[in-house]
Specification:
- Chain B: InterPro entries: ACP-like_sf.
- Chain B: It comes from Flavobacterium frigoris.
- Chain B: This is Acyl carrier protein.
- Chain A: One of its GO terms (molecular function) is lyase activity.
- The structure holds two protein chains of two kinds.
- Chain A is built from two helices and six strands; from the N terminus they run αββαββββ.
- By secondary structure, chain A is an alpha+beta fold.
- Chain A has one domain: Roll (Thiol Ester Dehydrase, Chain A).
- Chain A is globular, with a radius of gyration of 15 Å.
- Chain A starts with a helix and ends with a strand.
- Chain B has a single domain (3-83), classed as Orthogonal Bundle (Non-ribosomal Peptide Synthetase Peptidyl Carrier Protein, Chain A).
- Chain B is built from five helices and no strands.
- In chain B, α1 (3-14) crosses α5 (70-83).
- Chain B is globular.
- The chains are: A alpha+beta, B mainly alpha.
- At the A-B interface, loops of A face α3 of B.
Chain lengths: 142, 84
């Protein structure tokens, strides 16, 4: 499955789509990136006069690239509009701030995919290759 | 391994995932993972994977669907262990 095809199957759209590109994907791993447009709405309030990407948005970005894109790839034809998915757990550590216009790369490694639950070890790095966020995220078909 | 021992081992496996301390105190064969212990389906998967690791057995989809309470889980563990 091509990068563009996976992204088109994501159940998100602007302003809540946080995937620009999938650069690598196979049965066990996915890599993708996203650039945070400075005009994204949440920067107006997080924080006032000091825009920083909220941790929940970093978590969401990591989940969309690391978990949902990989899940769509793994399910392939079994993934359709009738399937609903849910984030079930996220255990994250935030190491560096991510500012407006930064491009981040997410690499996610599958820990397991059993009984409809996908759990991954996910890392996010900035343009300098520095890890900004790391953790374990799981989601499920519900 | 008798049922009593298996019950104690299962109790230890389940412990990190419970959301109702009181129901967990009365952990018996009649305990339901979802309605009594408030365990969600995602953590139920974790419990089943932990059961596989601990007892060194493989749980298939069909068995997994039955493992919603202590009694049926013990039965499946016993059946799988007997086949080893």
């Amino acid at each position: 499955m091509k990068s563009q095809e996976i992204i088109s199957r994501l159940p998100y759209s602007k302003p809540f789509l946080f995937v620009d590109e999938i650069t690598k994907i196979d049965e066990s791993e996915v890599e993708g990136n996203f650039t945070f447009d400075e005009n994204l709405d949440f920067y107006k309030g997080h924080f006032e006069n000091y825009p920083v990407t909220p941790g929940v948005i970093l978590t969401e970005t990591m989940a969309q690239i690391g978990l949902v894109c990989l899940g769509i790839f793994l399910l392939n034809n079994d993934f359709n509009k009738d399937i609903s998915i849910a984030l079930t757990s996220a255990n994250m550590e935030f190491l560096k701030p991510v500012f407006p216009n930064e491009k981040v790369t997410v690499v996610s490694e599958k820990m397991f995919f059993r009984f409809g639950k996908l759990k991954c070890k996910v890392n996010m790095t900035n343009a300098n290759g520095i890890v900004v966020c790391t953790g374990e995220i799981a989601g499920m078909i519900v | 391994m008798n049922r009593e021992e298996t019950l104690v081992q299962l109790r230890n496996i389940v412990k990190p995932y419970i959301n109702n301390e009181e129901a967990f105190e009365n952990f018996t064969e009649n305990t339901d993972f979802i309605t009594d212990l408030n365990i969600n389906s995602a953590n139920l998967v974790d419990i089943i994977l932990d059961v596989e690791d601990y007892f060194k057995i493989h749980i298939d989809n069909e068995s997994m669907e039955k493992m919603v309470d202590v009694k049926s889980t013990l039965e499946i563990i016993e059946t799988k262990l007997a086949k080893k």
